[in-house]
Specification:
Shape: globular
Largest sheet: 7 strands, mixed
CATH architecture: 3-Layer(aba) Sandwich
Strand content: 15-25%
Structural class: alpha/beta
Radius of gyration: 18 Å
Helix content: 25-40%
């Protein structure tokens, strides 16, 4: 399977737990073939799911699984209603955008009062990535993964929180995603200084945030 096939066919079931059961309208930015929106709809049958996808072929596929899909980049598409969505998701999207700030401003406009942004990001602090940088003195771009050659930006959990805070959000929750089974020597190393290595075992992490000032709306 090519890197492009992997990108567009992912379902991302690990992100479903961050979607509130009360969600009635969800927008998935960078929805690929729409499989995450379909998974949300399977879990929450009354939820209206929208998508935005730049790839025309993937967007056409997504439209068969969701209520409405717009083709184009988030800053260019028309027809997204303001203050409409309970949840906006961006699953591994921000790292593909040269400037995250305009996209985050658009999301704030689209969320209703009390709405949430749910996103996942690759973790540049992942222990294997750090190992290669420190001990192998290497930073080799790849077709897929943390060092995907199409990534413009790289994030740690700390830098992701800073980005969101500086752009008018309050972070509600963070969580590591998809940890691999560690080999014995890594488990021993991590046990020696758990505070230092906190978060390094996760190749991705999720962040849930809401526009600042909307708390309790």
């Amino acid at each position: 399977m090519s890197a492009q096939d992997i990108y567009y066919s992912q379902t991302r079931p690990e992100m479903l737990r961050f979607i509130p059961a009360s969600t009635e309208r969800l927008l998935d930015i960078g929805c690929s073939e729409g499989r995450f929106g379909a998974a949300v709809k399977a879990a929450l049958p009354n939820c209206e799911t929208w998508g935005v996808e730049a790839n025309e072929t993937a967007a056409a596929e997504a439209a068969t699984r969701n209520d409405r899909v717009l083709t184009g980049l988030i800053g260019e598409v028309e027809g997204l209603p303001d203050a409409y969505f309970d949840v906006v998701t961006m699953n591994d999207v921000l790292e593909h955008i040269p400037y995250s700030e305009p996209a985050l401003a658009i999301v704030r406009r689209l969320l209703r009062p009390g709405g949430r942004l749910v996103l996942s990001l690759p973790n540049v602090r992942y222990y294997l990535n750090v190992r290669d940088l420190v001990f192998r003195q290497d930073w080799e771009y790849q077709d897929f993964g943390i060092l995907d050659r199409t990534h413009f930006r790289f994030f740690t959990q700390k830098s992701a929180v800073r980005l969101l805070t500086q752009n008018g959000y309050r972070v509600i929750e963070q969580a590591g995603l998809n940890p691999p089974r560690l080999k014995l020597h890594y488990r021993a190393l991590f046990a020696l200084a758990p505070g230092l290595f906190e978060g390094m075992r996760y190749p991705q992490f999720a962040v849930v945030a809401e526009p600042a000032g909307n708390e309790g709306s």
